[in-house]
Design goal:
This protein has 3 helices and 10 strands. By secondary structure, it is of the alpha+beta class. A 4-stranded antiparallel beta sheet has the order 3-4-5-6, with helices on one face. Helices cover about 25% and strands about 25% of the residues.
């Protein structure tokens, strides 16, 4: 009888341990059956793709230790770099100059492949051949002249896609039109955010005390 009791007592811890292990196994199977979140949700933290101008990035949950998304914004190209159709030819620019009372001097100076284009014109009917303006165009669209009042003469020294350099002969107050004695001034005109700007001082049209363009 004592042996039977001892045997039963020896079996009790084993049964208790087996029951505990059985319970743990049941819990493990329950978690496994419930399943982890779908892979696509785990990768994105349950969020949706976020669209940004110029790029698309996917938001991730900071709790998962993922790096915060970065996005690149692409600014629209400046208007003056968006070249228009080739129909805006030198002939069309010449017509604009003539409509404003001037005659184009050298149509070959008008470069249709540039964003900034220039065409120098002399006042139509000028008896002495003086009285000139530089007419500017952006992609074929007329935007204005270099100055409000004409110069005795103006010459294109150089030009590129967005910059034109003009030269103005300078006169002393006693100089005749044929013979400017004050040298010349060079002025660079440049497109800046679609606006034409003079990068250098423009000499006055007339002056009794300083050098001038006329």
């Amino acid at each position: 009888m004592k042996r039977t009791l001892l045997a039963a007592a020896a079996l009790l811890p084993g049964l208790a341990l087996g029951g505990a292990l059985g319970g743990c196994g049941s819990q493990t199977r329950t978690v496994s059956l419930a399943g982890a979140p779908p892979a696509s949700v785990a990768a994105t933290g349950g969020g949706q793709p976020t669209t940004v101008t110029g790029s698309t990035s996917t938001a991730t949950s900071p709790s998962q230790g993922a790096t915060a998304p970065t996005s690149t914004h692409s600014a629209p190209e400046p208007a003056f770099t968006e070249h228009e159709a080739a129909s805006e030819s030198a002939g069309a620019a010449e017509a604009v100059v003539r409509a404003r009372g001037y005659t184009p001097d050298n149509p070959a100076e008008y470069h249709s492949d540039q964003a900034l284009r220039v065409l120098v014109g002399t006042r139509t009917g000028s008896g002495d051949g003086y009285g000139q303006l530089a007419f500017f165009f952006v992609n074929g669209r007329y935007i204005g002249t270099d100055t409000k009042e004409p110069s005795a003469s103006v010459r294109v020294l150089s030009q590129g896609d967005t910059e034109v350099t003009l030269a103005y002969p300078l006169y002393r107050s006693s100089d005749p039109l044929c013979c400017p004695g004050g040298g010349q001034a060079t002025v660079r005109f440049q497109l800046n955010d679609g606006q034409l700007e003079a990068l250098d001082p423009i000499p006055p049209a007339n002056s009794k005390s300083a050098l001038s363009r006329y």
